[in-house]
Amino acid sequence: xxxxxxxxxxxxxxxxxxxxxxxxxxxxxxxIGGPESVLHQWMFEAREENAAELAxxxxxxxxxxxxxxxxxxxxxxxxDWRGWWGEEPPYHAPVYVLTHYPRExxxxxxxxxxxxVTDGIESALEQARKVAGxxxxxxxxxASTVNQFLAAxxxxxLRLHVAPVLLGRGERLFEGIGRIGLTQVEARQTSxxxxxxxxxxx
Length: 202
Hints:
Elements: E1 4-11, E2 15-17, H1 41-45, H2 51-57, E3 62-66, H3 67-70, E4 94-98, E5 106-107, E6 113-117, H4 121-132, E7 137-141, H5 143-151, E8 157-163, E9 171-172, E10 182-189, E11 194-200
Parallel strand pairs: 1-7, 1-8, 3-4, 3-7, 4-6
Antiparallel strand pairs: 2-9, 5-6, 8-11, 10-11
């Protein structure tokens, strides 16, 4: 049976991005280096030893993400903005972007189409499950989106990639969600990250 999972890099104190995310600093002021930040160093500098986890990040039939993850634009859309990933994003599947501002679907190369959902997480999940079929659905991030899914009891599996750093501030997982039971399925340490996998008790 297909499941809904998140696979997200975080600091040891649970932050997945710094404050003040901008075009110049997409991960925020405290996480310098753009996509090759301290949180994601393992993805770029140690690809081989983390190959299995990297493959799993995009192994889904559909994805859901918050507007902040899609881009730094606030308010009405700048229709020239097409995401951080160039003309061929890594998803190769439908991606449902949570937003308050409507926008027509954005078809990219390689099978990725961004759909912009204005009526909440349940609607996004319903649409994602429909197109994913028997494949899993990934809640890609960021922190606010993952927290909403956790609080609503809509996640089945939590995959954390914990970098050995304390950020102290920023966009944090697990804010305002209450108590949730987890069952540890896997823990694996590599040189730059510890991969943790939990199933979520409903």
